[in-house]
Write a structure and sequence with these properties.
alpha+beta; Ribosomal Protein S5, domain 2; Alpha-Beta Plaits; 2 domains; 4-stranded antiparallel beta sheet; 9 helices; globular; binds ligand DP6
């Protein structure tokens, strides 16, 4: 009983920040993202009746403690559905530097949900897989379907799942990830979601989310870069405003992050298609179009404090290999 799955992380254009239910990971607002094709997680799950407990190996290193517990909880959900009780070994490899501050929980739990359920003999629909991945990490729900993906917030376990709004070849967006810090973030997303309600700005951010979601979805469907750029930057800034005004305050920006954001704004004012978005870390995702990607990558490399650029295009769905 074993299966291998590959999946991609995703970059959110409209962000998930704060849960209605932290255990089930039912978000306060819907979100929109694009899978990142250049970055891949590959996970093999095998259920073995002889194992005394679940085992997790990430990039060749055995992981215990909280990381293992989070994986075991997903394996428990799979065991319950499949009506089996064998423990499992999960072996996972990322092709992207894990120290680069690129979130891997989305691709990790998408690949785990898919490989784990297939290894247990379950044949889950895309929606069921998205719901299962969501339980491990909210953003993982969006790494199950292909291309450009919307996670509808829903209000319960059944109606909170993600679906594709356009395939990868719909729009030739490129994500140039400007690495400014390879450090692991001090406060992870899970703790961040839990304190989001302490910011007085969160209510306003959540109340306006349906409008931003609609604008962003339409901009993607119309391939309207300027409309896309302004709503994506606004949404990122609003999430970071909530983070900075939470108790305790979360401050992810580094001087080089700010330098990149300022440069991107200037380039766009000068007519280049470029906009920025940041997750819960210091690295800046610079979104542009294929035609301009090389030139913008070169400009980014020239900014002080930018140590590397990772390049990703719209990626496919999580797959069994
Ligand atoms: C800032 O999905 O990593 O990247 O559900 O606790 O695992 P958990 O959180 P996670 O949160 C992602 C936060 C974000 C924005 C986004 O991807 O939408």
């Amino acid at each position: 009983m074993n299966a291998t799955a590959v999946s991609h992380p995703n970059i959110a254009f409209i962000k998930y920040w704060g849960n209605r239910d932290n255990t089930l990971r039912i978000p306060m607002n819907g979100s929109l993202s694009m899978n990142l094709d250049g970055l891949t997680t590959r996970t093999t799950v095998s259920f073995q009746p002889s194992l005394p407990f679940d085992e997790l190996i990430i990039n060749g290193h055995e992981v215990m403690g909280a990381g293992l517990k989070r994986v075991s909880e997903i394996l428990d959900l799979i065991r319950e559905k499949a009506n089996i009780d064998a423990r499992a070994e999960a072996v996972t490899e990322n092709n992207f530097p894990s120290g680069a501050g690129i979130a891997s929980s989305a691709s990790a739990f998408a690949a785990l949900a898919l490989a784990g359920s297939a290894a247990a003999g379950l044949n889950l629909s895309e929606r069921e897989l998205s719901r299962l991945a969501r339980r491990g990490s909210g953003s993982a729900s969006r790494s199950i379907p292909e291309g450009f993906v919307e996670w509808q917030a829903g209000t319960n376990d059944e109606d909170s799942f993600a679906f594709s709004i356009a395939p990868p070849n719909h729009w030739d967006l490129v994500d140039l990830i400007a690495i400014v810090s390879a450090a692991h973030k001090k406060t992870g997303s899970t703790e961040g979601h839990a304190i989001a309600p302490t910011s007085p700005l969160q209510t306003a951010r959540v109340a306006d989310a349906p409008r931003r979601l609609e604008k962003c979805r339409q901009a993607i469907l119309d391939k309207d870069f300027n409309a896309f750029a302004s709503i994506v930057e606004l949404d990122s800034d609003m999430m970071h405003a909530v983070m900075m005004t939470s108790t305790p305050a979360l401050q992810y920006w580094k001087p080089a992050s700010l330098a990149v954001m300022e440069a991107v704004r200037m380039w766009r004012a000068n007519g280049l298609p470029a906009c920025y978005t940041m997750d819960a870390g210091a690295n800046v995702h610079v979104l542009t179009l294929e035609s301009e990607a090389q030139g913008i990558e070169k400009k980014l490399r020239g900014i002080d404090g930018v140590t590397n650029i990772l390049v990703a295009r719209p990626g496919g769905m999580a797959k069994i290999v």
